[in-house]
Specification:
534 residues; mainly alpha; two-stranded antiparallel ribbon; 21 helices
Length: 534
C-alpha cells in the first residue's frame, strides 16, 4: 500500500495530469487523421519530452500511444480508411455496418471493445507486477543479451514473406548503432575520420527521418481526396450493452492482445489476426464476418487496444522494446538516466505503479472524451493530405534541429526520410531498422559485460533463464528454417500436371454443360413460339 500511495503522489502532480490529458486527447485526434499515426506524432514530440521530467514525458507519450487506436477506428468505420495501420482489420466489419446506416452503433461498439481491451491489459499488468518484481532481478547480462537477441529474431520472423529484407534492415540498424565511439574503450568505429560521425548516428534523428519525414513526403506526393460522410443512426452509448452479449469473444481477444504484446517483435497485427480468426471459428454465424459482424469488430478492436499496456512489460522489466513506439519511449528513459530493467522494480517501484495508473486513467479519459466529441473528430478526416504533409515536414525539421542545434542532423534526417519514403512505396518494413539500433546497442553492452565471466561456451547458458532463452531461440530458428524449406522445396511436376489437367477438364466440362443448357433453352423457346404461331 505504501508503494500505491507513493505512486498516487507522483501521479497527482498538475503537470503529470496535464500531460496525460493532452496526450490522451491529442492521441485520439492524431489517430482520427488518416496518414499520420502515433509513430509520427511521438517522433515529432520526442525532442520536446527531453526537457520534461521522466514521468511527465512518458505519460504524454503513453497517452498518444494508448489512445491513437481509439481515434483510428473513426475513419476506418466511417470512410473505410484506417486512421492507424493497426485499425486496418476494423474496416472489414466496421465499414459494412456504416453502409447499412449503423455507423454510430459501430463506433460505439469499437469504443466499448477498445475500453475493455485497455482496462483488461492494465489489470493484467498490475497483477503481474509482483511476479515481475521477483523475476526481473534474475536477469543478468547474459539473460538480457539473449532476450535482446530473441527480440531481433522475432522481429525478423514476424515479417512473413519479407524475412530476408527484414533481417537485412535489422542488420543495418545494428550497424548504425556501432557508428561513433564504442562504449567501453571509446575508440572510433566507422567514422572515416569525419568529426561529425564521432558522436554516432542519433536514434531520434533516424526515427524522425524514417517515420515523420517519410510520411510527410508520402502525403505531399498523394492527391487530396474528397470524402463524403454517410448518414448513420444509433446511439453512442449502446455499445457497452452489446459488448456484454459477447463476453467470450472479448475475453479471448483481450487475452491474445496481452500475450502478443508481451512478446517482443510481435505486436498488434498478430494479436488481431489470431483473435479475429478464433472469433470466426467460435461464432455461430461465421459467414457474417467481413460483412458487418459485431463479433468481428469486437475481436479486432479489443485485441489491438490490449497490446500497449502489455508491451510495457518487456520494456520496464528488461529494458527491451518490442516495437518502434516503445523503442522511442526507451530513449526518454536514457536521456533522464532512468535505466529500465531489474533495478527499476527494486528501487523505483512507485514510478512503475504510477505508469500503470496512468494507463488506467487514460482509457477512462479517452472514452469520456469520445462520447461527447465524435462529431467534431469526424471532421478531422477531411483535412487535405498535402496540408498535413507540410505541417509534419515543418515540425519534424524543427524537432531535429532542436536536439543539438545541428544542421548536419537535419541533413541526416532528410536522407533517412527519403530512405523511409522508398521503403514505404515498396511496401517494405521500417520497424526492423529502429529495433536493430536499440537492441544492437543493448546486445553489445551486455555481451561485453557477460564475457568477463565466461570461460567456455557452456558458461554462457549454465543458468536456468539463460538456458530457456537459448532453447527458445534454437527452436524458433529451426522451425523457421523448416517452414521456409517446406514452402520452397521442389514440387512434383507429375502430380502438379495431373492437378492442373484435372482443373482444366473440370473447367471445360463446366463450359460444355453451360453451352448445352443454353442451346436447350433456345430450342424450347423456338418450339414455344412455333406452337403459338400455329
Amino acid at each position: 500500500m505504501d508503494v500505491f500511495f507513493a505512486a498516487l503522489d507522483v501521479l497527482a502532480r498538475w503537470d503529470v495530469m496535464l500531460a496525460l490529458v493532452v496526450g490522451s486527447i491529442g492521441g485520439v485526434a492524431i489517430g482520427a487523421i488518416p496518414g499520420v499515426g502515433p509513430a509520427v506524432a511521438i517522433a515529432i514530440l520526442l525532442p520536446a519530452t527531453f526537457s520534461m521530467d521522466p514521468i511527465v514525458g512518458l505519460t504524454m507519450l503513453l497517452g498518444i500511444y494508448g489512445s491513437s487506436m481509439y481515434g483510428g477506428a473513426i475513419p476506418a468505420i466511417l470512410i473505410n480508411t484506417p486512421g492507424t495501420a493497426v485499425n486496418a482489420l476494423t474496416t472489414y466489419d466496421g465499414f459494412p455496418m456504416t453502409l447499412r446506416g449503423e455507423g454510430r452503433r459501430a463506433l460505439s461498439l469499437a469504443y466499448s471493445a477498445s475500453f475493455f481491451g485497455g482496462i483488461f491489459s492494465v489489470l493484467c499488468l498490475i497483477l503481474l507486477s509482483p511476479v515481475l518484481a521477483k523475476v526481473a532481478p534474475m536477469f543478468g547480462s547474459r539473460e538480457i543479451f539473449l532476450a535482446a537477441l530473441l527480440g531481433i529474431i522475432l522481429v525478423v520472423t514476424a515479417h512473413k514473406g519479407q524475412m530476408l529484407i527484414a533481417a537485412a534492415l535489422s542488420g543495418f540498424g545494428i550497424l548504425l548503432s556501432t557508428v561513433g565511439l564504442e562504449p567501453v574503450k571509446y575508440t572510433r568505429r566507422f567514422t572515416f575520420e569525419q568529426t561529425w560521425l564521432a558522436s554516432g548516428v542519433d536514434l531520434i534523428v533516424v526515427v524522425l527521418g524514417l517515420f515523420a519525414l517519410s510520411q510527410a513526403f508520402l502525403l505531399l506526393t498523394m492527391d487530396d481526396e474528397k470524402i463524403r460522410m454517410p448518414r448513420s443512426r444509433g446511439s453512442l452509448f449502446q455499445g457497452f450493452r452489446e459488448l456484454m452479449r459477447h463476453p467470450r469473444v472479448a475475453g479471448i481477444s483481450a487475452s491474445f492482445g496481452v500475450l502478443m504484446g508481451m512478446i517482443p517483435g510481435v505486436g498488434e497485427f498478430t494479436a488481431q489476426f489470431m483473435s479475429y480468426t478464433s472469433a470466426r471459428k467460435l461464432s455461430k454465424s461465421p459467414e457474417a464476418f467481413g460483412h458487418g459482424s459485431s463479433e468481428g469488430l469486437i475481436a479486432s478492436e479489443t485485441a489491438n487496444n490490449a497490446v500497449p499496456a502489455a508491451a510495457m512489460i518487456p520494456l520496464l522489466a528488461l529494458g527491451i522494446p518490442g516495437e518502434a513506439l516503445t523503442a522511442m519511449m526507451l530513449s526518454v528513459f536514457y536521456v533522464h538516466n532512468v535505466v529500465p530493467g531489474p533495478g527499476l522494480f527494486l528501487y523505483q517501484m512507485d514510478f512503475v505503479v504510477a505508469l500503470y495508473l496512468a494507463l488506467l486513467i487514460l482509457n477512462v479519459l479517452v472514452v469520456a472524451f469520445l462520447l461527447v466529441s465524435t462529431g467534431a473528430l469526424v471532421k478531422l478526416t477531411q483535412i487535405p493530405n498535402r496540408f498535413l504533409g507540410m505541417c509534419i515536414l515543418l515540425l519534424s525539421f524543427v524537432g531535429v534541429y532542436s536536439i543539438r542545434n545541428s544542421a548536419v542532423d537535419c541533413a541526416i534526417a532528410a536522407v533517412f526520410g527519403l530512405f523511409g519514403y522508398v521503403l514505404k512505396r515498396l511496401n517494405l518494413p521500417i520497424v526492423p531498422i529502429v529495433l536493430g539500433m536499440v537492441l544492437g546497442n543493448i546486445m553489445e553492452v551486455k555481451l561485453r559485460a557477460a564475457m568477463n565471466r565466461v570461460n567456455t561456451p557452456w558458461d554462457f547458458i549454465d543458468r536456468p533463464i539463460a538456458f530457456v532463452l537459448f532453447a527458445v531461440i534454437v527452436l524458433i530458428v529451426i522451425s523457421t528454417i523448416w517452414k521456409t524449406w517446406r514452402d520452397w522445396r521442389p514440387v512434383d511436376r507429375r502430380s502438379l500436371a495431373r492437378k492442373s489437367s484435372a482443373r482444366f477438364a473440370k473447367r471445360i466440362s463446366g463450359r460444355k454443360s453451360r453451352h448445352f443448357d443454353d442451346r436447350l433453352k433456345i430450342q424450347r423457346r423456338k418450339r414455344t413460339y412455333d406452337h403459338l404461331g400455329s
